[in-house]
Amino acid sequence: MNTTEAIRARRSIRKYKPDTAIPQEHVDLLLEAAMCAPSAMNKRPWSFIVVESPELRGKIADAHPFARFLKEAPLGIIVCGDSKAYPQAPGKELWPQDCAAATQTILLQATELGYGSCWSAVYPNDARCAVISELLGIHSAIPFSIVAIGVADEQPDRRGFYDKSKVRYIR
Fold first, then answer.
1. Strand 46-51 and strand 142-150: pairing?
2. Average pLDDT for 143-148
């Protein structure tokens, strides 16, 4: 699968086949992809928490109203950001953009590896950030997103499409 195919094949998967595991070499590829994402001034203000524990995935799913499917997925990757990575302008608030790029590359890598995935935002919701930080023992970073990954147990229709009305050319 090439990049064009992965972009068009990616779906937000909320149902996963039970009793499937993701091998460590695939977890490593997912994390490497995340760390290859673009980052302003190459600050790389991210860190990652890999959650395989069914108990902890369940607690996170119970605490986050839009991540209930994490209970079924065998793997969750929490992308965290360092808000102090850019201490002054320019770039003071660029860490969320960098973490979004890292999250997207995880999704595309998961698609290429044959997995389903779904992104749930944590940041900028202060209440969600607080509860996820508490559950994961995060003290020096901000939980940005949760990515559930597993073998898809659904095949939703494609929702993304090219819309010429959203494009303005200046030539």
1. unpaired
2. 98
Closest CA to 102 of 28, 48, 24, 25: 48
Q: What is 3-151's CATH topology?
A: NADH Oxidase (3.40.109)
- According to DSSP, the residues that pair with 48 across neighbouring strands are 79
Using left for φ > 0, alpha for ψ between -120 and 50, and beta otherwise, residue 31 falls in alpha
114 within 8 A of 10, measured Cβ to Cβ: no
Q: 86 is written with which tokens?
A: 């850019």
Mean local confidence (pLDDT), 145-153: 98
pLDDT band of residue 88 (cuts 50, 70, 90) is: confident
Q: What is the pLDDT of residues 8-19, one digit of tens each?
A: 999 999 999 988
Residue appearing with tokens 């749930």: 120
**Strands 142-150 and 116-121: what pairing?**
antiparallel
